[in-house]
């Protein structure tokens, strides 16, 4: 009888078996990878080396850039290498590592987005208490809680997933090791425990999302009371991109992890993981830096451009 010890590698789903399309896939992912890598690295360096940006909001943004740097390196390089070498394999240990680090970074990312929403709420709705509530110690504790929550969730999910018995083959219908696709390969009822854990975590993330929405409702109420049109525009331009990114991560992640898995992969099954695991890493530098005057000024000082 087959069991999980016989699985020494998994086969990842390729975007195409046509060599020309594999090269196109490699080039597209290479561009995405370099843009995300350079964009987030510049954000990290600009905040770390510019004392003008040593404030709570930029401290959290620096943490977000570190998370984005890590998460883009978990899935994209392996997918590019497989396309270039015309192979689909990933080792058992490599698959475990992908699941652990991706889940760790995604949960830490969303936790940090929740904290950033709270930071904006305090800054706009309770400005007189901002320095007290968002002091250095509080910021470090909040950031640490985001990283720790990611690690704890990842250990739980990775342990649950790879404790399963795999006897449904080793073909993962995704371009990286994704938990819902791995659960399809399980042949025991024990996978229901992981489904239950996923549902529980989904409820927690939904609670965070509701907290973010409530925070922004209060923020928008306060913004609308600002007499200056320029002040309202600045507040909206800061908050709306953040809310857009949060909504993108939540909606696509919910679709990927909560929708019933199908026996054969569809185009939606391939597109949705890209939206939650790749796109935010490209968009975050654009959303939080190119539209931010202080960040653009810091980047000019960093690069020596006038």
Approximately what portion of the residues adopt beta-strand conformation? under 5%
Number of H/I helices: 11
User: Number of DSSP strands?
Assistant: 3
Helix content: over 70%
Widest β-sheet, arrangement of strands: 2-1-3
Major sheet: 3 strands, mixed
Rounded to an integer in angstroms, the radius of gyration calculated over CA atoms is: 21 Å
Question: Which class best fits the helix and strand makeup?
Answer: mainly alpha
Mean pLDDT: 83
Shape annotation: globular
Low-confidence stretches: 1-5
Distance between the termini: 68 Å
Which series of helices and strands comes N to C? Answer: EHHEHHHEHHHHHH
Write up this protein.
There is one protein chain. The chain is mostly helical and 306 residues long. Helices cover 75% and strands 3% of the residues. Strands 2-1-3 form a 3-stranded mixed beta sheet. The N and C termini lie far apart (68 Å). The N terminus is likely disordered.
Features:
11 helices, three-stranded mixed sheet, 306 residues, mainly alpha, globular, 3 strands
Blueprint (SSEs and pairs):
Elements (H helix, E strand, L loop, with lengths): L8 E4 L6 H31 L6 H30 L3 E3 H34 L4 H4 L2 H27 L8 E2 L6 H5 L7 H34 L4 H30 L8 H11 L1 H12 L2 H11 L3
Parallel strand pairs: 1-3
Antiparallel strand pairs: 1-2
How would you summarize what this structure contains?
This protein has 306 residues and is mainly alpha-helical. It is 75% helix and 3% strand.
């Amino acid at each position: 009888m087959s069991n999980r010890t016989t699985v020494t590698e998994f086969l990842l789903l390729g975007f195409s078996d046509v060599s020309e399309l594999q090269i196109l896939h490699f080039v597209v992912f290479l561009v995405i990878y370099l843009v995300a890598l350079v964009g987030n690295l510049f954000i990290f360096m600009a905040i770390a080396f510019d004392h003008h940006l040593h404030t709570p909001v930029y401290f959290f943004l620096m943490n977000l850039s570190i998370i984005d740097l890590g998460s883009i390196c978990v899935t994209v390089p392996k997918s590019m290498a497989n396309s270039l070498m015309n192979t689909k394999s990933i080792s058992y240990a490599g698959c475990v590592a992908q699941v652990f680090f991706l889940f760790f970074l995604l949960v830490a990312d969303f936790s940090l987005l929740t904290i950033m929403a709270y930071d904006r709420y305090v800054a706009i709705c309770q400005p007189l208490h901002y320095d007290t509530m968002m002091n250095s110690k509080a910021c470090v504790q909040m950031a640490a809680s985001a990283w720790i929550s990611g690690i704890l969730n990842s250990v739980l999910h990775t342990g649950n997933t790879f404790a399963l018995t795999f006897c449904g083959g080793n073909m993962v219908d995704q371009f990286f090791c994704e938990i819902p696709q791995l659960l399809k390969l399980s042949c025991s009822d024990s996978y229901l425990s992981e489904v239950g854990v996923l549902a529980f975590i989904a409820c927690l993330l939904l609670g965070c999302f509701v907290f973010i929405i409530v925070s922004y409702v209060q923020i928008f109420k306060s913004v609308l009371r600002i007499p200056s049109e320029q002040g309202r525009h600045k507040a909206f331009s800061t908050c709306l991109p953040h809310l857009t990114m949060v909504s993108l991560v939540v909606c696509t992640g919910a679709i990927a992890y909560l929708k019933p898995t199908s026996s054969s992969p569809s185009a939606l099954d391939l597109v949705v993981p890209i939206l939650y695991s790749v796109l935010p890493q490209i968009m975050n530098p654009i959303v939080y830096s190119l539209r931010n005057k202080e960040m653009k000024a810091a980047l000019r000082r960093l690069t020596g451009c006038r």
